[in-house]
Amino acid sequence: MKDLFSGHAQEYATFRPHYPPELYHFLFKYVRAFDHAWDAGTGNGQAAVVLAGRFGMVTATDISEKQLAQAKRLSNITYKVGGEVSALPDQSIDLVTVAQAVHWFDRENFYAEVNRVARPGAIIAIWGYGLFQVDESIDPLMTTFYQSVVGSYWDPERKLIDDEYRSIDFPFDEIPAERFAISLEWDMAVLEGYLNTWSAVQKHIKVNKTNPVAGLMNQLLPLWGSGKWLVQFPVFLRLGRVNPNA
Hints:
With 246 residues, the protein is of the alpha/beta class. The chain has one domain (6-241): Rossmann fold, CATH 3.40.50.150. The chain has 10 helices and 8 strands. Strands 1, 2, 3, 4, 5, 6, 7 and 8 form an 8-stranded mixed beta sheet that branches.
């Protein structure tokens, strides 16, 4: 797995959007027991904290110690440094989640681990979100920035996000999933903070010693102004049942 976020873990925790409650409500409908969940690639524990509200225990793993240091501590969450392979017991997990991270995984190893730790009939849910939309006057500038200004600085795995995970292997009994959206009101300061968490922006800064977000902010200022705009992220989900006939 690649660690592209340790260098700005605090900013990541501050500016990354939270997933909508409707997503969790949807996937919880298919969970048969709420004893133990595994949130793989947990980052700063955003999804793990929500899972902890329903599950007796949550194990949350990530390769970045700095990301885990930003996570909220709860008595029923165990944070561990780790990648696709866990130290969890066989057939001990009711739900496996991966939020905005499975594109970084060695999925063959991860799926083998899911099959090992999941109880028969457990649920696996992988989801992510794509480029946000604001307004017909702002969206073209964002698309140009995303594709042309920092486009060559994205790692190849980013294409899986653009494809909404449709092209990845998902060797489980798949359940048709709904689509969701993250809707937020942002001023320019929050927008700038969020854009600076992009791995492509950080790579651009490292290579060129300049921050491309500054130029974009200058372009957006006459349009965005000092107020807040509604920012909407499309959220996609793939949901499956593990070993349903075991």
